[in-house]
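Renewal narrative, Specific Aim 1. Our central claim is that a sequence can be written position by position from structural information alone. The example that follows is taken directly from our test logs and has not been curated for this report. It begins with the structure tokens describing the chain, in the order in which they were read.
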């Protein structure tokens, strides 16, 4: 699915930059095999993408799995077709149900059919997560910028964008306005919402409410801060696309107005004072005084703010937050004999996530730290030649999910970054011809 010459050039760059033939081999195999293993071109021209070992398409994962391919797609029209097909399928899903996070290949009724929420045969799971709606907008903007192709943004995008704006506006006042309810009976508390499916009590902040985190675990305080930061960034992208492609000043104005409100909410409620680290970003807040100081391995995370575009690597509040996250003050930061890094309440204790290690490298200004973390990922695959969802920080042979496509993609993105091939350079080097 990726042009051989394009891949060969990238492999050469990775090998040269890292001086590590094993890293180069892992990179080449993952880039060659990862996308064909999960992507299926459908008869309508769209592309269905499995999340890995689950037969459904997550809006978040299907976009995140494409990140390293975006870096290289500028000179590969066939690859562009596949990636644009992913976007168009995402947009159709969003228009069908913007509250759903994962969808079926067809209307076959597979998935979590017993959940107490408004399911449909197209929906695999209906855990509402604010970041699920950020990723299609980000993917649309990046594909438009990198490829310059006019077929990236079509009426499907406009329909989905309006649905996203409507939902995010309603969920600014979840208590009074939201139609969304979700309950899953007989499973972990993190898989359901309290108060008969309404979720924890919140008060409006300007931010937009989210039922679940990027990990698919229920939020503790309702307003997921890194998710709202990502929403703020993509609302800026939506403004550009509405003005320059859709010629829709009303849509652009709505995007900017909501962005201003969310940003004000982040600054008013999402920045807290920590006794050791000073002013830091909270992971979640409720508008009632509750806040949660932690980070989760899944993107968008607080650690990933430079990658989602909300904060620079040198921003003082981000640096203080980063210091907190990479310390024992983050309850999901684990130190072991094999690895040190961020895990998740979604997986067992003392399990570090390769995604978080890759994000730590990608968000660092240090080339030495990037290379160190790339080699750590190389050495903690448990002898499988694959990245996993998580692994025990004392024993990488103990892991969750034997194959996790998103983690493989993040390894590849970090390898490309070490070689100076990044999404930022792809965005800046290709002049759009729209």
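The sequence written for that structure reads:
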């Amino acid at each position: 699915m990726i042009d051989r010459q394009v891949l060969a050039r990238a492999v050469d760059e990775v090998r040269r930059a890292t001086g590590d033939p094993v890293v180069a081999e892992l990179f080449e195999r993952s880039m060659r095999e990862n996308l064909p293993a999960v992507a299926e071109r459908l008869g309508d021209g769209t592309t269905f993408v499995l999340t890995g070992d689950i037969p459904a398409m997550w809006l978040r994962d299907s976009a995140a799995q494409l990140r390293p391919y975006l870096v290289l797609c500028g000179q590969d029209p066939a690859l562009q077709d596949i990636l644009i097909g992913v976007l168009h399928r995402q947009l159709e899903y969003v228009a069908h149900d913007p509250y759903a996070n994962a969808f079926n290949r067809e209307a076959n009724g597979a998935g979590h059919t017993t959940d107490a929420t408004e399911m449909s045969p197209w929906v695999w799971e209906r855990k509402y997560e604010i970041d699920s709606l950020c990723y299609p907008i980000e993917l649309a903007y990046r594909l438009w910028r990198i490829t310059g192709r006019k077929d990236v943004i079509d009426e499907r995008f406009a329909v989905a964008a309006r649905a996203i704006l409507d939902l995010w506006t309603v969920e600014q006042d979840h208590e009074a306005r939201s139609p969304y309810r979700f309950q899953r009976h007989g499973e972990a508390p993190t898989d359901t919402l309290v108060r008969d499916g309404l979720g924890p009590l919140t008060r409006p902040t300007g931010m937009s409410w989210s039922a679940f985190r990027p990990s698919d675990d229920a939020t503790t305080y309702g307003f997921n801060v890194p998710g709202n930061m990502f929403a703020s960034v993509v609302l800026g992208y939506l403004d550009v696309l509405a003005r320059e492609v859709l010629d829709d000043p009303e849509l652009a104005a709505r995007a900017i107005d909501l962005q201003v409100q969310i940003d004000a909410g982040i600054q008013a409620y999402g920045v807290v004072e920590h006794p050791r680290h000073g002013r830091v970003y909270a992971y979640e807040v409720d508008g009632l005084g509750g806040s949660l100081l932690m980070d989760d391995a899944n993107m968008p995370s607080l650690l990933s703010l430079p990658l989602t575009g909300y904060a620079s690597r040198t921003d003082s509040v981000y640096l203080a937050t980063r210091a907190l996250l990479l310390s024992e003050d983050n309850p999901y930061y684990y130190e072991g004999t094999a690895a040190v890094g961020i895990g998740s309440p979604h997986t067992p204790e003392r399990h570090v996530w390769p995604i978080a290690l890759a994000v730590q490298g990608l968000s660092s200004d240090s080339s030495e730290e990037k290379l160190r973390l790339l080699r750590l990922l190389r050495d903690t695959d448990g002898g499988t030649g694959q990245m996993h969802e998580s692994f025990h920080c004392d024993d990488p042979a103990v892991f969750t999910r034997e194959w996790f496509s998103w983690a493989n993609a993040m390894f590849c993105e970090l390898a490309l970054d070490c070689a100076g091939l990044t999404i930022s350079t792809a965005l800046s080097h290709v002049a759009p011809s729209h």
